[in-house]
Amino acid sequence: MKIVCVGGGPSGLYFALLMKRQNPAHEITVVERNRPYDTYGWGVVFSDQTLGNLQVADPTSAEQILGAFNHWDDIEVHIRGRTIRSGGHGFCGIGRKRLLNILQRRCEELGVELVFETDVQDVTELPACRGADLIIASDGLNSRVRTKYAATYRPDIDTRRCRFVWLGTKRRFDAFTFAFEETEWGWFQAHAYRFDEDTSTFIVETPEEVWRAAGLDRMEKEEAIAFCEKLFAKHLEGNALISNAAHLRGSSQWIRFPRVVCERWVHVGGPDGATPVVLMGDAAHTAHFSIGSGTKLALEDAIELERCVAKNPRDLASALRDYEAVRSVEVLRIQNAARNSTEWFENVSRYVNLPPEQFAYSLLTRSQRISHENLRLRDRNYVEEFEGWIAERAGAARHVGGGAIPPMFTPFTARSVTLKNRIVVSPMAQYSCVAGLPADYHLVHLGARAMGGAGLVVAEMTCVSPEARITPGCPGLWNDAQRAGWRRIVEFVHANTDAKIAIQLGHAGAKGSTRRAWDGIDQPLDDTDTEPNWPLISASPQQYLDGISDWSRAMTRADMDRVRDDFVAATKRAAEAGFDWLELHCAHGYLLSSFISPLTNLRTDEYGGSLENRLRYPLEVFAAVRAAWPEPLPISVRISAHDWVDGGITPDDAIEIARAFKTAGADLIDCSSGQVSKLEQPVFGRMFQTPFADRVRNEAGIATIAVGAISEADHVNSIIAAGRADLCAIARPHLANPAWTLLESAKIGYTAIDWPRQYRAGKAQLERNLERERAAR
Ligand SMILES: Cc1cc2nc3c(=O)[nH]c(=O)nc-3n(C[C@H](O)[C@H](O)[C@H](O)COP(=O)(O)OP(=O)(O)OC[C@H]3O[C@@H](n4cnc5c(N)ncnc54)[C@H](O)[C@@H]3O)c2cc1C
Ligand SMILES: Cc1cc2nc3c(=O)[nH]c(=O)nc-3n(C[C@H](O)[C@H](O)[C@H](O)COP(=O)(O)O)c2cc1C
């Protein structure tokens, strides 16, 4: 096979040498614009796992790379004069130059032709490419080949918010170091790691607006370096910062990271119209330097393509299809983690007010790929020490029964109510009432979940009037019989468990008068239902399902008074029923949510228009509810923190919404999202709504509940420990298992949890069995 690699960076060189190893008869050329052994960049970082892959792919170069590596285990975080160190992270650093030299030499040894000082303007005009069977576009981030065939590759380039500069220093860092320094313009951070005997990479980064405010956009290169030296002087210990970008002038050494994704990686065309031209490395994708994966991804692309060709020696088209399929998935995985990491560093100012211990933990777990238990595997002492710190801050003992208390099992207090742990049974409509009356079904359903170990059980959306119901099966609190029904349940929970119980009050608005979920979710009632449809009201006229739902009419001021008073009456009955906690439902497109979202509020009076106006009525209801609810008891407010529709509520709005409810006296914000419009395009995934709880908590400064695809103790521990939320609401897993909390605690080996005394024999057996399973693993 005749192969040409355009670009002699890590991907082009590595692919060339692997293919030559596979079959010495292959004719392989690498065309590079720089001179031999001439390159930019400081150190590159690999994890131990990447080194393992190199070892399998080409032991000879892997040996040399390993020999040249500086290995370190620890990460150090410096913030506000404190240093927090954790171990077990297993990274290696090597000079980029050194790495390329090893790969160039290995290419030469194997007989790859290296052509230097040839700047390829147009791949179709490169003589070496004529008659090639395969052309590799390994020409880096600003790939000309990618631009030429952009119609096929369909690249998407997202230029990120921070400015950063790659610098070096002779200061020998003995840990991967993150240093944060505050200036009058904002925060700057340095990412530093040693990659050879006496040199470290030192990247300085700050948001664009801080960079401009500090005047760095107008500084000459030397002046900017002096600025950074002064700012990070105590970390540099008298060493200078060095630039190796001699060709760059003024502020052009400061770049904004471009995140590159390509829809396709293979173009068939090239100089003779039928040659596959294949993207590899930075030309195909980039991953933010804060997870140190650019070079790793480039080398792993090369390994995969070589493997695919070996598997399909006579069918190059299939090999290329497999390569694209395998690598694009893997790259997306890394890019997702990289996006979380990028965003964390773009928003450092959100986290700097966390205590340094928690700030460091938040940094370590920022990509959501490293969880609490994963950190424990890396450094048990660090995690136990930190767990003790979290427990102490929550007012609990540092240790129980010889072990630290996991963050999930620390208590939480709002007003006079202390929850025994951080788990909330999220409200879930059950559609199992007649005339809004909670009876035996709810006693068993909620009673079982209260016995299941959660700190707080939130009863489903309970409607403040018959017209406020979603379906004829929804519970209510508009009469005394319903109050008595709820009281029976609350008394059971208080008499038999140490869980607290909350009620969620709501009004369905335009999403009311529908069938029970299993008969047709969101569908209007029909002849087969027990009741006829009732008239709908909301902020503005609305039809939730186009052409299907009944139209709602806009509320008049008289409607507003009536509905507000219904909320107040229900609140008083909830207090009389003995509930410990109240949640006001302002999410999911229901009545109060319909005022908040611009998608559903088209009013032109003082209740529509600006966010301030749209919040006016929900805040009026909140204030009336707050005044009617006993002062020592907390109220949480559930919001849709993102409508997932252009022109709808965004997470930025959610911060303002949270601030407004905080000022009005809310104790927590329960951060859900969506269900406001059928046009929504949510991005689901593990813990997908937790970033909203994180932002609200750390920007608006109010306690939050995270909810959505939180499904194991490890998730909860990471969220609570990192200060992303104060409580975690778990919904669907509690449908599968009312005792979810008890099972999860046993799974992580935490035995100092109380079970209902009637069930204790089951506790010992479960713990023993799980202990055996853990030992076997
Ligand atoms: C300025 C800069 C500094 C960096 N520093 C570091 C660092 O210190 N540590 C780290 O881990 N990562 C660093 N990176 C990221 C890292 O270099 C990449 O993720 C990784 O090298 C990707 O490998 P690659 O082979 O795909 O691309 P590259 O390493 O970019 O290699 C592409 C090669 O193609 C050549 N080329 C480009 N266009 C042409 C053309 N038209 N004709 C001929 N040759 C061409 C280039 O000269 C280059 O040698 C840096 C990136 C940049 C842009
Ligand atoms: C059957 C069911 C009913 C629900 N009813 C309500 C409700 O009454 N009020 C509410 O705010 N959310 C309701 N939700 C949303 C959940 O409280 C929760 O936010 C959502 O299911 C995401 O959490 P999970 O991934 O743990 O299931 C309901 C969810 C389910 C599955």
Bound ions, cofactors and other small molecules, one mention each: flavin-adenine dinucleotide, flavin mononucleotide
The parts where pLDDT drops under 50 for at least 5 residues are none
**Shape designation:** elongated
Structural class: alpha/beta
Helix tally equals 27
- Mean residue pLDDT: 95
Amino- and carboxy-terminal Cα gap: 46 Å
For the CA atoms, what is the radius of gyration? 30 Å
- Biggest sheet details: 8 strands, mixed
Would you report the number of β strands? 31
Give the oligomeric state of the chains in this entry, treating copies of one chain as homo and distinct chains as hetero: single chain
Query: How helix-rich are the residues, as a percent range?
Result: 25-40%
Strand content: 15-25%
Write a compact overview of the structure shown:
By secondary structure, this protein is α/β, with parallel strands linked by helices. The protein has 27 helices and 31 strands.
Question: Can you put this structure into words, describing what you see?
Answer:
It is a single chain. The mean pLDDT is 95. The two termini are 46 Å apart. The protein is of the alpha/beta class and 777 residues long. The chain is elongated and about 90 Å long. The chain contains 27 helices and 31 strands. The structure holds flavin-adenine dinucleotide and flavin mononucleotide. The site of flavin mononucleotide has 19 residues, from β23 and α25.
